[in-house]
């Protein structure tokens, strides 16, 4: 997975694009995105819609910046992978705190998705850091 300076980091591009798309979906259609993640369609009032959109802004921002860093291959990918993992960690903690109030489907998708996102972020950061070290050593 090592990339030369200025060469795209394909993993960062894919993960960033997916997170950006997820964020945009929460901005454009929060109720539909909530249903996709296992939420109850009847539970989306004004406060829930605000929180879903806030999550959408966060994910669009982090995803867009991870995508940008991946396209540039400038060595900043590790930090954005960690920001992505941190966002998913916040979601995991929130999911665990509300575990007993969530449907089985919402627990699987929300908590499971957050756990996978943390793993992808941490592993992506480690790989990007290793690639950056190889770039610096060969320069």
Any overview of this molecule?
The chain has one domain (10-138). The chain is 78% helix and 0% strand. The protein contains five helices and no strands. It starts with 9 loop residues before the first helix and ends with a helix. The mean pLDDT is 89.
Unreliable segments of 5+ consecutive residues: none
Number of strands: 0
Mean pLDDT: 89
Proportion of beta-strand residues: under 5%
The H/E string reads HHHHH
Please give the largest β-sheet.
Answer: none
Structural class, please? Answer: mainly alpha
> Which bin fits the share of residues in helices?
over 70%
Structure annotation, total helices: 5
- Give the CA-CA distance, first to last residue: 17 Å
- Shape type: elongated
Rg value = 16 Å
- Total domain count: 1
Blueprint of the fold:
Blueprint: H1 10-28, H2 30-36, H3 46-72, H4 77-97, H5 104-138
Name a few traits of the molecule.
single chain; mainly alpha; 5 helices
């Amino acid at each position: 997975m090592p990339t030369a300076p200025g060469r795209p980091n394909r993993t960062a591009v894919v993960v960033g694009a997916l997170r950006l798309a997820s964020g945009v979906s929460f901005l454009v259609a929060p109720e539909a995105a909530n249903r996709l993640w296992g939420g109850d369609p009847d539970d989306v009032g004004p406060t829930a819609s605000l929180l879903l959109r806030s999550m959408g802004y966060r994910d669009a921002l982090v995803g867009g910046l991870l995508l940008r860093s991946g396209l540039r291959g400038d060595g900043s990918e590790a930090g954005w992978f960690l920001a992505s993992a941190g966002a998913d960690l916040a979601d995991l903690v929130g999911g665990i705190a509300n575990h007993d109030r969530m449907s089985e489907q919402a627990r699987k998708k929300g908590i499971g998705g957050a756990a996978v996102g943390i793993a992808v972020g941490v592993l992506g950061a480690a790989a990007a850091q290793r690639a950056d070290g190889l770039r610096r050593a060969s320069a």
